[in-house]
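Sharing a chain and its predicted structure for anyone who wants a worked example. Both blocks are below, sequence first, tokens second.
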Amino acid sequence: MITNKQYQRLMSEYAKTGKITVSALKADVDRQTARKYIEAGQGPAELQAKHTWRPRVDPVEKVMPEVRAMLRDAPELEAKTLFEYFLERPESDLEERHLRTFFRRVRHWRATEGPERQPRVRRAGLSSSRAFRFLSRADVRGHGRPRGAVLLVHRYLVQNSRCRVRDAATAAGPAHRHSLILA
């Protein structure tokens, strides 16, 4: 298939020279393709067959009205849950291989007809910080011999309160998380 611009250039060059090979080279088209368009006397849009059929019957279309109604009533339902529900019903004619099609239809419904999504907002006053502490080879022993290591301290900071870093042995609760990265 060639573009309309290539077709116009091909036809104008052919009108000037009368030679298919030269016209095809100047229009950047294969010689046999150029001959096809020159003999037909029609552009690429006219020669292309119109496709009015679907490649296969949509397997999800049968259950989509019910899926839309369920999503309208409870938009928090997950697509996987709905798919499993309809998969258990034999009259739905759904199979495991229709999973991606079903997910695409649900995602499309959520984007076009679903409820407006709320933006994610961080809770006021809660943030975190990370600090790396480089430990000497004498501080960490791996397999009986000293090794270099980096201690990553992840702290959750709460506004208007003081957080202090405790070492890994005394750290308790979700306020601190320590990771040891061996070098």
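Comments welcome. The longest helix spans residues 4-17.
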